[in-house]
Amino acid sequence: PGSYDLSIEGKKFAGISQRSLRQGVVVQIYLCMEGSGSQREALIRDFYEVSLRQEETKFIYPQIVPEVMASLSELVDPDLTVEG
C-alpha cells in the first residue's frame, strides 16, 4: 500500500489523502471497519472507471487493487463493528 496507508500483513484498511485547492486544502480519510474490504474496493474502482469515462483530468485518481484491501473486522476481530 501507499505511503499514507495503514495495513496489516500487506492488507490496507485505512489511508489518508490531501489535495491543494486555490483557497484551501482537502484532507480525506478512508477507514474500513467491517464487511469485505475487497468487495468495497471493487465497487470504488468501478465507480472511478464509470465516472472518468476514459477522459483525462487534472487530478490523479488512485489505482484501486481490491486484492490488497481488507476491513479491520477481517484482519483483527470478526466481531468488530462500527457501533462498538
Could you characterize what this model shows?
This protein has 84 residues and is α+β, with helices and mostly antiparallel strands. It has one domain (5-75). Helix content is 24%, strand content 27%. The chain contains two helices and three strands. The chain has helices at 37-52, 72-75; strands spanning 5-8, 11-21, 24-31. It is globular and about 40 Å long. The mean pLDDT is 86.
Tally of individual helices: 2
Total E-strand runs:
3
* Molecular shape: globular
The radius of gyration over CA amounts to: 14 Å
Strand order of the largest sheet: 1-2-3
Identify low-pLDDT runs: none
Binned, the helix content reads: 10-25%
Category from helices, strands and their pairing: alpha+beta
Assess the beta-strand content as a share of residues: 25-35%
Give the SSE string.
EEEHH
pLDDT averaged over residues: 86
Q: Give the termini distance in whole angstroms.
A: 27 Å
Largest sheet: 3 strands, antiparallel
The number of domains: 1
Keywords:
single chain, 84 residues, alpha+beta, three-stranded antiparallel beta sheet, 24% helix, 27% strand, globular
Write the layout of secondary structure elements.
Blueprint: E1 5-8, E2 11-21, E3 24-31, H1 37-52, H2 72-75
Antiparallel strand pairs: 1-2, 2-3
